[in-house]
C-alpha cells in the first residue's frame, strides 16, 4: 500500500531480539535494579538487555517533590552525568531547515541533529511522537505538495541503531554541528512516504510496543491535503513503517493527535467547523464530536489518565469527557492579557502533576487546574511564536519557540527556566517526550 518506503526494520529486529551476550546474561535483577536506582536518587529503574537503567531525578538522595527556592532554576548540567534512560529526551522538529533536534532533558543540551527526510529543507518536519521504549517518529508535512509527505523513525538508544555499513560502529550524529546526509545516519530506522499531495500532520504511537525491546506497536498519521484530495488516516507498523491500514479522515484538516488507553487515535481538526475525531484502534471506524461553546479550542490535543480529551486553540482550553460527552471550556483572554492564540497542550506529571499546560503564541505558558479546568496563571518564557509544550519524565515543562529558535526547560515550582538553542524554525506541539503516552497507558 505504501508508495515509497526505506526500512531497516529487519536489521533492527536482530539487534533487539537479544543476539548480544548481555541480553541473556541474567546480570540484572528487576527488584534489585529498582532499589539501587532509588538509593542513588532516581525515581525508578528497570532492566533492559541485562543492564539496569535508572529514570527520574538524578540528584542522589534528592526528593523530587521537595520545594525549591524562588531563585532556583531547572538543572542544566554540562558534566556528562549519567543519563537516566533512553526516554530522557525531547525531540523537536526544526521546520525551517528540515532537521530534528534531540535534546537531553536532564542536561538541557542538544545531543544529536538529524535530517528527517529525502527533500532537505523541503522536508518540512513538524509533529513528533515518542514510544514507551524511547524511539521516535517525526512526520514531514511538505506543504508545497510536490515533495512527498512522510514519516521517519529514529532509535532513541544507540544500542538500537543499525550498523548498515558493517564497519563495527554506529555512524550517527553527535550534536547540532554533526548532521549526517540523508540515509547515512545509522539511527534512522525507516522512512515511509505517502502519495502526493498528502501533508501528514497529527502523529502518535499507540503504546502497544514492548517497553523493554521497542518491538511492536503502531504509528498513527493523518493527512491534510487542503481540499486537493480526501484526507486520510494511516496505521503504520512500528517496526518497519509498512502501511497496515488506511481510511478516511473526516472533519476537515487534522492538526493535533493523541492516543487513549484503548489504543484509539484522536485528532482535532482546524480551519473548518471545529470537532475532534476518534479513530477506532482496531476497525479504524471514526466518530466525530463537535466542539461546542464559545471559542475555537481546536489546535493542540492531549489526553489525561481519566481518558478526558484536552484541546487548546484561539484563547480557550477545552476538556471533553467521551464517557458522557460533557465539556468544560475555559476562556483565558481575560486572565492572560498577553495571550493571543493557544497552540500545543500537555498534561503534567511529577513536578507538574495536577495541571494542564498550554503554549500561547505570545510566549506565555498557561497553567490550567486539571480537576476544575480553571485558569491558574501564565508564565512568560519566550518571544512570540511559541508553538508547543511538553512534559519530561521528571515533570519539568518544556516550551518550543519558533521565533527564538529555542526550547525552554521550565521549573513549574518556581517559573524559572533554562534556554536551549536548537535549529531554525522549530514547530512541534505534539508528544515530544513520550510522557503523554505514558500518562494514558500506565496510569
Structural class: mainly beta
Number of helices: 3
Q: What percentage of the residues does DSSP assign to strands (E)?
A: 35-45%
Q: Could you say what the CATH architecture is? A: 7 Propeller
Overall pLDDT:
84
Specify the overall morphology: globular
The top-level CATH class is: Mainly Beta
- How many domains? The number is 1
**Major sheet:** 5 strands, antiparallel
- CATH fold category name: Methylamine Dehydrogenase, Chain H
- The CATH superfamily title: YVTN repeat-like/Quinoprotein amine dehydrogenase
In total, how many beta strands? 30
First-last Cα distance = 35 Å
Q: What distinguishing features does this structure have?
A:
single chain, 443 residues, mainly beta, Methylamine Dehydrogenase, Chain H, five-stranded antiparallel β-sheet, four-stranded antiparallel β-sheet, 3 helices, 6% helix, 38% strand
Describe the secondary-structure layout:
Blueprint: E1 4-7, H1 9-16, H2 30-39, E2 44-48, E3 51-55, E4 89-94, E5 99-104, E6 109-115, E7 125-130, E8 136-140, E9 150-154, E10 188-193, E11 200-205, E12 218-223, E13 232-237, E14 243-248, E15 253-259, E16 265-270, E17 275-279, E18 286-290, E19 300-303, E20 309-313, E21 316-321, E22 326-331, E23 342-347, E24 355-360, E25 364-369, E26 375-380, E27 386-391, E28 397-401, E29 406-410, E30 417-421, H3 435-442
Amino acid at each position: 500500500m505504501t508508495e515509497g518506503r526505506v526500512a531497516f526494520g529487519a536489521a533492527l529486529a536482530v539487534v533487539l531480539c537479544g543476539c548480544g551476550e548481555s541480553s541473556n546474561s541474567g546480570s540484572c535483577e528487576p527488584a534489585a535494579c529498582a532499589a539501587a536506582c532509588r538509593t542513588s536518587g532516581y525515581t525508578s529503574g528497570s532492566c533492559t538487555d541485562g543492564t539496569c537503567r535508572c529514570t527520574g531525578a538524578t540528584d542522589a538522595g534528592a526528593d523530587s517533590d521537595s520545594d525549591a527556592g524562588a531563585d532556583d532554576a531547572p538543572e542544566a548540567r554540562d558534566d556528562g552525568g549519567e543519563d537516566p534512560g533512553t526516554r530522557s529526551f525531547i525531540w523537536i522538529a526544526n521546520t525551517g531547515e528540515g532537521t530534528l533536534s534531540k535534546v537531553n532533558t536532564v542536561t538541557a543540551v542538544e545531543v544529536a541533529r538529524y535530517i528527517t527526510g529525502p527533500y532537505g529543507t523541503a522536508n518540512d518536519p513538524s509533529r513528533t511522537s515518542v514510544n514507551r521504549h524511547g524511539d521516535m517518529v517525526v512526520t514531514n508535512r511538505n506543504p508545497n505538495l510536490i515533495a512527498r509527505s512522510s514519516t521517519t523513525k529514529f532509535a532513541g538508544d544507540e544500542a538500537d541503531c543499525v550498523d548498515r555499513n558493517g564497519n563495527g560502529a554506529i555512524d550517527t550524529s553527535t550534536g547540532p554541528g554533526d548532521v549526517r546526509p540523508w540515509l547515512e545516519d545509522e539511527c534512522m530506522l525507516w522512512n515511509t512516504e505517502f502519495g502526493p499531495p498528502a501533508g501528514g500532520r497529527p502523529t502518535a504511537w499507540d503504546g502497544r510496543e514492548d517497553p523493554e525491546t521497542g518491538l511492536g506497536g503502531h504509528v498513527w498519521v493523518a493527512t491534510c491535503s487542503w481540499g486537493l484530495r480526501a484526507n486520510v488516516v494511516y496505521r503504520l507498523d512500528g517496526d518497519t513503517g509498512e502501511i497496515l491500514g488506511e481510511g478516511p479522515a473526516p472533519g476537515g484538516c487534522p492538526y493535533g493527535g493523541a492516543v487513549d488507553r484503548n489504543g484509539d487515535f484522536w485528532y482535532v481538526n482546524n480551519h473548518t467547523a471545529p470537532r475532534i475525531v476518534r479513530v477506532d484502534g482496531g476497525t479504524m471506524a471514526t466518530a466525530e464530536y463537535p466542539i461546542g461553546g464559545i471559542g475555537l479550542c481546536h489546535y493542540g490535543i492531549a489526553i489525561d489518565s481519566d481518558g478526558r480529551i484536552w484541546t487548546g486553540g484561539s484563547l480557550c482550553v477545552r476538556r471533553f469527557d467521551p464517557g458522557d460527552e460533557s465539556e468544560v471550556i475555559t476562556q483565558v483572554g481575560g486572565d492572560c492579557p498577553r495571550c493571543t492564540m493557544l497552540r500545543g497542550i500537555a498534561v503534567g506529571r511529577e513536578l507538574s502533576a495536577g495541571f494542564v499546560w498550554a503554549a500561547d503564541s505570545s510566549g506565555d505558558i498557561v497553567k490550567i487546574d486539571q480537576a476544575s479546568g480553571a485558569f491558574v496563571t501564565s508564565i512568560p518564557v519566550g518571544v512570540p511564536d511559541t508553538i508547543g509544550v511538553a512534559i519530561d519524565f521528571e515533570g519539568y515543562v518544556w516550551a518550543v519557540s519558533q521565533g527564538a529558535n529555542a526550547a525552554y526547560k521550565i521549573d513549574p515550582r518556581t517559573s524559572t527556566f533554562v534556554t536551549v538553542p536548537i535549529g531554525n524554525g522549530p514547530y512541534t506541539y505534539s508528544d515530544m517526550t513520550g510522557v503523554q503516552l505514558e500518562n494514558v497507558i500506565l496510569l
